[in-house]
Amino acid sequence: MGLGDGQSLPGRVALRLDPSLITRLTSNMIVVLVSGTNGKTTTTALVAAGLREAGGTITNSGGANMTGGLASSLAEATPDIAETRFAALEVDEIYLTAVAEMVAPAVFVLMNLSRDQLDRTSEVRRIAERWRLLVDEMPLTKVVANCDDPLVCYAASASESVIWVAAGISWTDDAIGCPVCGGEIVFSSGSWACGCGFCRPEPSWKLGADQTIEFPDGRIKVNPRLPGSFNLRNSLTALASCSAAGVPPSTAVTGVEAVSAVSGRFARYQIGSGTDAEVMLSLAKNPAGWSELVGMVDLIATDSALVIGLNAKIADGRDPSWIWDVPFDVFSGRSVIVTGERCLDLAVRLKYAGVGPLVVQDVYSALVVASKWSKQVVLLANYTCFQEARKALESPLAARHDGSARIVHLVGELRRWRNLSRTNGS
Ligand SMILES: [Zn+2]
């Protein structure tokens, strides 16, 4: 994500004029700060929905998760600030210390730490060190931490009031070196340990059978409208976080279950007018996020046509070589369209995964073609490709045209692909 997405210019200016802005706006609120590499936008939305069941809540939806963006989000909510009891704020991993010093949070929610796009934020260990110092310096702040992520455990264990949540880890490649001794962490049967004694803490919040959440003084069934097992785990984290902020699961669960889309993620759109074809949008930005999505789609969208989109703009990270780390093999034998400005990189990657995709560079056209294969379409895309799809689907032109306006473009694409295949001798 580029600077423009998490930092807002008016917000930064406001902070320059009044450095205490964020502090003043949140001074009477119970503040929950949510951070981590993956799932923080969704989890923040779930936390906010849960807290809202108990009182006025403000949040920074839309990914404005650095100091400037936060100042803007809070300032926009100003008229309601007198009635606001809670703030659920998503914070960029790197900005957590700066924001925490401004808002004196009641709760930190530390989700996971993994490598982001290859050319950005590679220093996950340094972030873990910073978080560790932070929770140590703020002993009054409760820490809700994911016990399945060794780097998060390393950071959180410096606090004396940790609530361990079994929120899972889908990507262990970045966490194999022990942050305590440098030795090797071994993951097996849902746990992990290092020879030095550093090992997975016992969680007090975890998933039981049949979507039940078990916590220290009870259990509750949760039916999130958001799809996928990772959203069940995000709901678990959200309920633990609400509880740490003083809102019991029996109250918060109503709000958590009602969330159906988060800034377009998991939102469903009709494709064209007069059709009953529908697409669900999903977004991932790095190998860990993609692994989650690929697993979700493989499980819940077995009859859907798949469109996979990849751009490599600055906000996405310029180097898309991480696609080789994503387990696309699960789509072997399925009908897949690849799209986006790096669709050919994806096509090669998928070919090696045993998938023979159709290439349609324009994302809206790709969705229209997919809707001819199945009435249910799922788009997996990285950041700017996801935004392009959302914009196209929300534009009135898309609703009027059933894609016919794009057919000319599409035919050109098919011809291009055929020529390319021919020159490749395949
Ligand atoms: Zn160790």
Question: Mind sketching the topology for me?
Answer:
Layout: H1 3-6, H2 9-17, H3 21-25, E1 30-35, H4 40-52, E2 56-59, H5 67-76, E3 84-90, H6 96-103, E4 107-110, H7 124-137, E5 142-146, H8 150-156, E6 162-165, E7 185-188, E8 191-194, E9 206-207, E10 212-215, E11 218-221, H9 229-244, H10 249-258, E12 268-270, E13 278-283, H11 287-300, E14 305-309, E15 336-339, H12 343-352, E16 358-359, H13 363-373, E17 376-381, H14 383-394, H15 396-401, H16 404-423
Helix pairs in contact: 2-5, 4-9, 4-10, 7-8, 9-10
Can you give a write-up of this model?
The structure is a single chain. This protein has 2 domains: 3-258, Mur-like, catalytic domain (UDP-N-acetylmuramoyl-L-alanine:D-glutamate ligase, 3-Layer(aba) Sandwich), CATH 3.40.1190.10; 268-423, Alpha-Beta Complex (Protein-Tyrosine Phosphatase, Chain A). It is built from 16 helices and 17 strands. The protein has helices at residues 3-6, 9-17, 21-25, 40-52, 67-76, 96-103, 124-137, 150-156, 229-244, 249-258, 287-300, 343-352, 363-373, 383-394, 396-401, 404-423, and strands at residues 30-35, 56-59, 84-90, 107-110, 142-146, 162-165, 185-188, 191-194, 206-207, 212-215, 218-221, 268-270, 278-283, 305-309, 336-339, 358-359, 376-381. The strands form 4 sheets. A 6-stranded parallel sheet has the order 2-3-1-4-5-6, sandwiched between helices. The longest helix is centred in the C-terminal third of the chain and has 20 residues, at 404-423. Mean pLDDT is 85; it is low at 1-5 and 117-122. The structure holds zinc ion (ZN). The site of zinc ion has 7 residues, from loops.
